[in-house]
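Class prep. Write one:
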Amino acid sequence: MPIEKRWVIKPQGDPQKVDELATATGIPRVLANLLVQRGIDTYDEVSRFFSPKLSDLHDPFLMKDMDKAVERVERAVRNREKIMVYGDYDVDGTTAVALVYKFLRQIGHKDLLFYIPDRYTEGYGISTKGIDHAARKGATLIIALDCGIKAIEKVDYAKRKGVDFIICDHHLPAEEIPRAVAVLDPKRADCSYPFDELSGCGVGFKLVQAYCQKNGIPFQQIEPLLDLLAVSIASDIVPLVDENRILAHYGLLRLNASPSKGLLSIIKICGLDRHNITIDDIVFKIGPRINAAGRMRMDENDENAAPSGGYAAVNLLIEGNESLAEEFGSVIDGFNQDRKCIDRSVTQEAHDFIEAHAELKAAKSTVIYNPRWMKGIVGIVASRLIETYYRPTVVLTMSNGFVTGSARSVPGFDLYQAIESCSDLLENFGGHMYAAGLTMRPERVEEFTRRFNAYVEENIDPITLQPQVEIDSELFFSNITPAFRRDLNRFQPFGPGNPAPVFVTRGVVSHGETKLVGADCEHLRMDLMQRQKPNTTIQTIAFQQPTHYEWIRAGHPIDVCYQIVENHYRGSVSVQLRIKDIKPLRSKQ
C-alpha cells in the first residue's frame, strides 16, 4: 500500500493585497493570491514577473574576477592560443561546455578542444588526466565549467604544466579559493553579485555576456545560445527566480521557435516537436537523454568509443549539421534506453532486497550496497526507492577499488549533516541538504550503515517520514475557464522557487469514463464532476495511483488535489488535471 500523504494548505495572501492586485491586474482573485503567496505584491513586481525582460539581467562585471576572466580570454583569442573547454558529465556541465565552445567558435577562434572527464575512471571535477591531455595538445588555457571551485591542487598542478585556469562554478566554495587566473562563482563570500543561484551553464553564459559587452558584440548574437541555458536551468533544478526566470523564459522561446540542430534532434525523438515545450518537458524528457550519456560506461575494448559518454552529449549539442545531429541524437537516445533498462533492473533488485529483510524494511532510513551495480545510475535508484519507502536513502556500489554512492533525502531532513556525522569513515563526500555523493573503503560500509541509520533514527522528525502535498488554495472546477488558464500560463516557467500551483477541489465524483491505463494498469484516468457544480466536468489523470479505482468507479465522492496542465494528444490540445493525490470521502457513504 502507498504511504498516505498529508495535505497542507499554504498560508493565504493578505486579503487587502490580494484584492488590490486582482483589481489592478484584472486577473482572478485566486491567481492574485498566488502572486502574494510568492512575495509578488505590487503592480511593478507583477509586471516584471509576467513580462521578463533581458534588459533586467544583471551586469556580469558585478561578479568577482569577471574583468580578469574576460582579459584572459581576450588574450587567448588575440594570440590564437589553444583553449580547452572543460566541464562535468551531467546536463549542466555538457550544456555549459557546448555554450562556451559554440561562442568561441562563433567569434572566430578555431584552436579549440573540449574535455569531459569519465565518471568511472576520473570521477567528478578537474582531473590530472584532463590537465595532462590539455598540456599534450598544447592548450595554454582551460575554461572549467560547473566544476573546479575546490580544485586547489589541480589548478597548481596545471600552472606547473604551463596551463592557466578560468573557473566558472556555482557550487559552494571551501575557505580557500583555487589560485586560478579568475574564479567566477557567485557563491564566493567575497563576491557581491546580486544573484547566487545561477547554474554552472549560467555562470559560463555570464562570461560570454561580459566578453560581448566589453567587445561591442550585440546581445542578439548570443541569444541563440539561450536554448542550451534553459536546458541547464531546468535540469539542474536551480530556483526559477530572478535571472534564472528571465533566462529560462527566453531560452524556452528559443527552444520552441528555433532550437539548435542538436537539441532539435532530441526534441523530435521525444515527440515534442508539435507542441509547446515546457520546463517539465526538459526535466523529464530532454534532460534525462543528455544525462544518460555521462551515466553509461564506455566500452574499453572499442577503439572507436569516445573517451567518455559525456563527449557524445557535447558533440550532439555543438553539431550544426542536421543529419549529423540526428545521428548523434539516435546515439544519445540509445544510451537513454540502456540506462532505463539498467536502472529499472537495479531498482527492482534493491526493492526485492529491502522487502526480504524485515529490519531494513522497518527502518527509518535505507543504506543498501551491491558491488555489481553501475555507478552512473545509483542516484536514480536512490530517488526511485524514496518514491516507495519515503525516507533518507543511500545506494552504494564498487568503483575503482572504493565503495562509492549517492544519497537522497526527503523534505525536512538534512542529509548532508547525517553524512558529515560519519565523515571520519569516508574518503570524501560532498553535496547539500537533499542530495550527496560519498566514497569510502569497503571495510567501512558496515560501520557507516550502522552510524548513518542511528543518526537518522535519533534526529528525524517522524512527521518528515510522511509525504506532504502543499496546496496553494481551493478551487471550483467551474473557475477553470479558458481565460483563467491563459492567466495561469503567465506564471510559467514553473520550477523551484516558482512551483506549478496545486489546487484542491472537494466532493467530486466520476461522471463518464473512469479506467485504469498504462502497461500495468498503474495509472487512473477519470472524468470528474464537482457535485456542487453539476455542469462542470473535467478530464484528469492520476499517475501511479490505482488504489481508489473501485471506490471512484462506484460513484463515491473524493477530494482531489492537482495541477492544471495542457494535454497534447494526436494534434489536439485540451485542459487536464494532473492529480497529485486522492482522498476518498468515506464518511459520506
About this structure: The first strand starts at residue 6 and ends at 9. Residues 73 and 211 are 8 Å apart (CA to CA).
